[in-house]
């Protein structure tokens, strides 16, 4: 066993950390306060080429392994979770199906500019009446001559109102549940495709999240992303482990920032004639947080390493996502307590970490859904 990162990965980590500290950190509070998408920062950051981290070099990517991508997600999430979410959407969920199934022309038109940061992408599953239960998808796709006509409304879509293209889950027959689900590429400017209401969120601010509306939207046959009809969920499943690991990595990144902040505060804040970090009960919090952060890292990087070995770490990725995000929620909670009343004040970081951590509970599967999955895999039965 070798738990060390390679020299290349260590170098990459230092480079990304430095970039995040220099380029993103100074804007974090402003992004959260304004809740506006930082377009100038997006242009500056995406020009560095990181959006193509997992894509082949001939497409403008870096052909990095999964472990390296987790390093990136973790470092990014030390800063603005909202900005990290917009960036990561373009690197993974928003572009993967276009990379995997798009024609050469579609790749030229959508994927390559997305890798360069010139186009913004998203993925759409969630609707008002269906989130975890994809079989409840009501957005419909009707076959017509030469293509498909889409109707429906998606909600909670990251980058949605800004998106130049979206991969949209739609059913060709609601009675067939999961077996009738397919992803379709819909590009901005297509008649009938529009952005609806923008959501005002508790956390993860600065990424624009909202509705996308499809009213008799015609897309040609080649926009059905996949070799076989009815396999949309199967195709999505090919990157589900990576999505789950990514969400866990975001949790570890955010927890690190909160932990470091709490440590700094505990070493300076004085009560009863000594720094609060000298009290056993406060030290115990740091002992527990550091242990759980380390455990989360072990789970997460092992699952990512398994992806790099060509394995399908279904259990490990689900465990890593759930454990890392629960750990993150616990760390941000403890840090707000360590800060006392200041943890409740907008002038300090902990309230933001606290709000941002909640966002990670949903993506990649809620923890009830992950426990259902893990429990069934472990125990068996129906
Ligand atoms: C900031 C943000 C950005 C997002 N971005 C996107 C995006 O870009 N694209 C997109 O498609 N979606 C996006 N989502 C939506 C996200 O994917 C969903 O929130 C998630 O899939 C859960 O669905 P839901 O919120 O409808 O909850 P529901 O599925 O309605 O679940 C509600 C509650 O019931 C529980 N529950 C559901 N089923 C079961 C069960 N069988 N057993 C036990 N408990 C159960 C859940 O765990 C949860 O606690 C985003 C969400 C947020 C908060």
Tell me how many strands there are: 9
Largest sheet, order of strands side by side? 2-3-7-6
- The parts where pLDDT drops under 50 for at least 5 residues are none
Largest sheet: 4 strands, antiparallel
Q: N-to-C SSE series?
A: HHHHHHHEEEEEEEHHEEHHHH
Q: Structural class of the helices, strands and pairings?
A: alpha+beta
| Beta content | 5-15%
What would you note in describing this structure?
It is a single chain. The chain is globular, with a radius of gyration of 21 Å. The two termini are 36 Å apart. It contains 13 helices and nine strands. It has three domains: 7-115, Orthogonal Bundle (Butyryl-Coa Dehydrogenase, subunit A, domain 1), CATH 1.10.540; 121-230, Beta Barrel (Butyryl-CoA Dehydrogenase, subunit A, domain 2), CATH 2.40.110; 239-379, Butyryl-CoA Dehydrogenase, subunit A, domain 3. It has a four-stranded antiparallel sheet, covered by helices on one side. By secondary structure, the protein is α+β, with helices and mostly antiparallel strands. The structure holds flavin-adenine dinucleotide. Flavin-adenine dinucleotide binds next to strand 1, strand 3 and helix 13.
Features:
382 residues, alpha+beta, Butyryl-Coa Dehydrogenase, subunit A, domain 1, Butyryl-CoA Dehydrogenase, subunit A, domain 2, Butyryl-CoA Dehydrogenase, subunit A, domain 3, four-stranded antiparallel sheet, three-stranded mixed sheet, 13 helices, binds flavin-adenine dinucleotide
């Amino acid at each position: 066993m070798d738990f060390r990162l390679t020299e290349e990965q260590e170098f990459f980590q230092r480079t990304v950390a430095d970039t995040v500290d220099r380029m993103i950190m100074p804007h974090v509070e402003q992004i959260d306060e304004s809740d506006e998408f930082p377009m100038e920062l997006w242009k500056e950051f995406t020009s560095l080429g990181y959006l193509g981290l997992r894509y082949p070099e001939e497409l403008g990517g870096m052909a990095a392994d999964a472990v390296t991508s987790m390093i990136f997600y973790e470092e990014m999430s030390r800063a603005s979770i909202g900005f990290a979410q917009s960036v990561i959407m373009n690197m993974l969920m928003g572009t993967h199906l276009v990379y995997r199934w798009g024609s050469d022309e579609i790749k030229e038109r959508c994927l390559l500019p997305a890798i360069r940061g010139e186009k913004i992408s998203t993925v759409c599953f969630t609707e008002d009446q269906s989130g975890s239960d994809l079989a409840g998808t009501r957005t419909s796709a009707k076959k017509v001559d030469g293509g498909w006509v889409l109707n429906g409304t998606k909600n909670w879509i990251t980058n949605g109102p800004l998106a130049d293209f979206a991969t949209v889950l739609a059913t060709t027959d609601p009675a067939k549940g999961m077996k009738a689900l397919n992803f379709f590429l819909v590009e901005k400017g297509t008649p009938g495709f529009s952005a609806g209401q923008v959501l005002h969120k508790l956390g993860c601010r600065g990424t624009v999240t909202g509705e996308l509306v499809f009213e008799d939207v015609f897309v040609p046959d080649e926009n059905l992303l996949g070799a076989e009809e009815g396999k949309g969920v199967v195709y999505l499943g090919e990157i589900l482990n990576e999505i789950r690991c990514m969400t866990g990595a975001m949790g570890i990144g955010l927890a690190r920032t909160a932990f470091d902040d709490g440590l700094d505060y505990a070493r300076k804040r004085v009560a009863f004639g000594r720094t609060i970090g000298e009290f056993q009960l406060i030290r115990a919090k740091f002992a527990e947080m550091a242990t759980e952060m380390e455990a989360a890292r072990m789970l997460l990087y092992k699952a990512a390493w398994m992806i790099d070995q060509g394995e399908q770490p279904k259990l490990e990725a689900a465990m890593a996502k759930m454990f890392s995000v629960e750990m993150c929620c616990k760390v941000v909670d403890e840090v707000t307590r360590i800060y006392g009343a200041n943890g409740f004040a907008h002038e300090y970081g902990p309230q933001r970490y606290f709000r941002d951590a909640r966002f990670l509970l949903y993506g990649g599967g809620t923890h009830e859904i992950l426990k259902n999955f893990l429990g069934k895999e472990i125990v068996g039965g129906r």
